[in-house]
Specification:
Layout lengths: L6 H16 L4 H22 L15 H17 L4 H17 L5 H14 L4 H10 L6 H4 L1 H10 L7 H10 L3 H13 L5 H12 L5 E5 L2 H14 L5 E5 L6 H10 L15 H15 L4 E4 L14 E3 L3 E4 L6 H12 L3 H4 L8 H8 L3 H14 L2 H16 L4 H5 L4
Length: about 400
């Protein structure tokens, strides 16, 4: 958001003028350059005054100020045309992102907004979709409100925002036919970055067949599931989101299918939901009879209690009671199975480039481990390859200096 006064620009002109004076440029040139700067300022102001589509932070993160500005602009549009369902959707998502990123908005604000939508546009796709997205209801929200997603899909099956909700519902009901159907719908919609799907592919490539992979959020859960079900790659890796495993019905069905002893405790038995998730993880480690992996994007606190039994093998760490040569597995996965050209060169003008940059940090532990291995073994070719990849990741990272210190 642009400042309310001109102090920033006055300061900018002052320093700009100082540099020009030092170079002994004539006044007419200075005035021309100041005019250029002024035009840039005006152009930026115009950009901030334009309404733009608002996406979730899992697709295109923006600053809190940007979301606040868009909320203001879309609310103004709603006042002009209260039946503009598209304006309602963008305003809601902007408000929701402000709530996630700051304390300026609360769940109560979102609930009030949804009630206003119900009065203004009750029979629209947007109202039904956002009512489910908001999920303010007691009990199992996924089941109690799912009829809104069904109605939205009935109104307009071409809209893609609801694919995550459709896929999640199918997963939670162990409906493999629908999981495959919605994965293909999502893939063919071209609304998810190919680079994110590539990341999901490499996550699966880190796991053995007939294993379990624990994931954390949208961008490490949906991509591998889409890759599995649409492209048929590694279909026997069971991808389990740790947050969904808190749902009793879903967890019980999953554990039964894996031959795991039931986990009878509930969320209310623990101080926090995070303690509940850690207890579920310990239960899996104890009773699962096939290989268990944690995605490298999972908070390490989830398996901290078992840290000495986890081994980096790529975009995942493997839990194992017995020590094994994980370096050999890591090397095999990266050299033979990973598809990593997109890290070196991306030909996409991708709105999710910031998300991809954040996701790519998950490669670093494995890549730095391999870099040191190649350095010690005298493999200059692969050492240079790892050096290049690490530097590419570091270049889009706010903490690049701490990453590069591991290189020569």
């Amino acid at each position: 958001m642009l400042p309310k006064d001109n102090s920033v620009y006055e300061n900018y002109f002052f320093h700009f003028g100082q540099q020009l004076d030092l170079l002994l440029i004539n006044k007419s040139t200075i005035m021309k350059l100041k005019l250029i700067v002024l035009l840039i300022v005006i152009s930026t102001s115009q950009l901030f005054s334009q309404k733009q589509p608002v996406y979730s932070i899992v697709k295109q993160p923006q600053s809190t100020e940007w979301y606040q500005n868009q909320l203001k602009l879309w609310n103004a549009e709603i006042k002009i045309n209260p039946k503009n369902a598209y304006a309602w959707q963008n305003a809601y998502i902007a408000m929701r992102m402000i709530k996630i990123k700051s304390t300026f908005k609360t769940q109560k604000d979102l609930n009030v907004f949804i009630k206003k939508m119900q009065q203004a546009i009750p029979d629209t796709y947007e109202y039904h979709y956002l009512t489910y997205y908001n999920r303010e209801v007691g009990g199992d929200k996924y089941e109690k409100l799912f009829h809104h997603i069904e109605k939205a899909y009935e109104i307009d099956p071409t809209r893609t925002e609801i694919y995550p909700d459709l896929l999640t519902h199918a997963l939670m009901n162990s409906n493999s036919v629908k999981v495959k159907e919605y994965s293909s719908l999502w893939f063919n919609s071209n609304t998810t970055s190919p680079n994110i799907l590539n990341f999901g592919y490499n996550m699966l490539a880190s796991c053995e067949d007939n294993s379990v992979l624990i994931t954390n959020g949208d961008n490490d859960t949906y991509p591998p599931i889409i890759v599995q079900n649409h492209l048929g790659y590694k279909p026997n890796v069971k991808v389990l989101n740790i947050y969904l495993l808190q749902k009793d019905k879903y967890r019980n069905e999953v554990f039964k299918s894996l031959g795991i002893k039931p986990f009878d405790k509930k969320n209310a038995d623990f101080k926090t939901s995070y303690d509940f998730m850690k207890a579920i993880a310990r239960h899996l480690e104890k009773y699962l009879k096939i290989p268990l992996y944690y995605s490298s994007t999972v908070n390490k606190g989830l398996y901290k209690a078992s840290f000495d039994k986890t081994y980096v093998v790529g975009l995942a760490v493997q839990y194992c009671e017995k020590k094994f040569d994980n370096l050999a597995i890591l090397k095999k996965n990266v050299e033979l199975h990973f598809k990593i050209d997109y890290i070196e060169t991306s030909f996409l003008n991708d709105i999710s480039k910031q998300v991809i940059a954040q996701s790519n940090n998950a490669y670093l532990l494995g890549f730095i481990t391999l870099y040191n291995h190649y350095k010690l073994s005298g493999d200059e070719v692969n050492k240079k390859k790892m050096d290049k990849l690490i530097r590419k990741i570091a270049a889009s990272n706010n903490n690049s200096s701490n990453i590069l210190k591991y290189l020569d």
